[in-house]
Amino acid sequence: MKTIGSARRLVRSAGLGVLRHLPRTRLLVRKAYWARQGRSYQRLAANVEVDERLVFFESFGGRSLSCSPCAIYLAMLGQERFVGYRFVWSFKGAEKTAEMRSAEALADPRVSVVQRGSEEYFRALAAAKVLVLNTRLPEYVTPKPEQVFVQCWHGTPLKRLGYDVEIETTNALNTTSELADRFGMDAAKWTYLLSPSPYTSQHLADAFGLPKERRAEVILEEGYPRNDEIALAAADPTQARRAQVRKLLGIPGGKRALLYAPTWRDDSYQAGVGYTFDYLIDFDLLRRELGEEWVVLFRPHYYIANHFDFTAYEGFVIDVSAWNNVNDLYIAADALVTDYSSVMFDYAILRRPIMLFVPDYETYANDIRGFYFDLAEIPGPHCRETAELVRTLKDPEGYWARYGEAYDAYVQRFCPKDDGHAAERVIDRIWG
User: Fold this and answer.
1) Where does the record place it (predicted)?
2) pLDDT tens per residue, range 339-396
3) Is 27 helix (H, G, I), strand (E, B) or coil?
4) Is 250 strand, coil or helix?
5) 170 and 240 part of one domain
6) d(CA 224, CA 70)
7) In this structure, what CATH number is given to the domain that contains residue 331?
8) What is the pLDDT of residue 280?
9) In terms of domains, do 245 and 337 share one?
10) Do 199 and 236 fall into the same domain?
11) Which end of the chain is more exposed for a tag (fewer CB within 10 A), N or C?
12) How far apart are CA 35 and CA 31, in angstroms?
């Protein structure tokens, strides 16, 4: 199986632009492609033996060394029982793959790096005893019966997913029903699904169409390994990690940091561009009212393709879009502003203020995706205008007086297992 060349990528991009408007044709083309690729993969896999001591890792489709796959990998490196193991990491694109081959975290001699989509990549998929990913496997790759597929996923669901989406829309190259079917294809391959809470267990299982009779054996409700470092940093009385990260980010001493982390909108896709975002907070107002005390860390979802120029806000807005480890940003920040992103659940482990900026709430709830529960259950103000954020940030004591009790209940509901030791428990469950 070969990596797609640049010329083929251009042809493919143009073809996808046409197919976006022809759903029936798109589905036929896609199924034919999956069938052809599936046969090719099966031929390759049939000649590759499964290595009991080989583990395959991938995070966000090869975009980064991060999330729960990375947390599990790092924990395994430190355990004596994995001394004789080998690890493979997959990264997307030749440039990223080359960059990661020299990354310090991958310097262990047991580790190799492959480019996603290359023949090396498919051979690693076929050879690894355990596959650890936080997004879906390619539709045409089916693990062998003796392989173990660990689906880590990458967040606690607020927005409806997969089979739970009730609003019929077109998401880039998928209708709602097409995307749901792709979720179901992935669930059929799972050996394990990681979860931090009963809430997440139920909704991820429902969204992916995991049959009820399989749930007890598949779901590992041990916490999200990716959140271990957040919990441990929060519990550290010296706050050494926080001080280190703030220095690396360039946050001036004595100033507080506001992490602004908006997510993408399913209906804002532009062919040839990607997902665009049009709901920014008013940085002029924030700087005018809070610039003496605060800086803003700006971290949009990686799907968002806009170019944001913060030259005019130098010294006040720090663009951290490319920062690899989002946990660093949580640990550094004194408060969070988001909209519909699952960052609101991970950040709650730190027990610091959370605020929502949701000027398009009705549209998102009724016409785009919908939610699993009423946003009123999320502790903190739900703001339509930046001025409301300013008022909250100027009155931190008022925040806790108003939302403190609800915040405790929120943490207990959504992250009761995120205690800093999830990776250890998950490893014990998988490897015994």
Assistant:
1) Cell membrane
2) 999 999 999 999 999 999 999 888 888 887 789 999 999 999 999 999 999 999 999 9
3) helix
4) coil
5) no
6) 11
7) 3.40.50.12580
8) 86
9) yes
10) no
11) C
12) 6
Query: Residue range 398-418: average pLDDT?
Result: 97
- Kindly state whether residues 314 and 373 are assigned to the same domain: yes
* Whether the predicted pLDDT of 170 surpasses 50: yes
> Taking the CB of residue 141, how many other CB atoms lie within 10 A of it?
20
Which pLDDT value is given to residue 167? 67
- The whole-angstrom separation of Cα 102 and Cα 97 is 9
Tell me the CATH number at 166: 3.40.50.11820
User: Does residue 297 or residue 279 have the better pLDDT?
Assistant: 297
Enter the tokens of residue 276.
Answer: 């665009």
Tokens of 380: 């903190």
Q: Does one domain contain both 22 and 93?
A: yes
In a domain, 1, yes or no: no
> Is residue 337 pLDDT above 70, yes or no?
yes
Contact yes or no for 353/381 (Cβ under 8 A): no
Check: CB of residue 232 under 8 Å from CB of residue 246: no
What sign has the CA pseudo-torsion 221, 154, 259, 422?
positive
Domain that holds residue 264: 228-414
- Asked if 211 and 318 sit in the same domain, the reply is no
Largest pairwise CA distance in the chain? 65
pTM of the model: 0.88
Same domain, 116 and 212: yes
Q: For the chain, state the CA radius of gyration.
A: 22
Provide the token pair at 53.
């001591």
pLDDT (0 to 100) of residue 12: 57
Helix count (H) and strand count (E) of the chain? Answer: 17, 17
Q: Could you tell me the pLDDT band of residue 331, with boundaries at 50, 70 and 90?
A: very high
Q: Does residue 332 contact residue 297 with C-beta atoms inside 8 Å?
A: yes
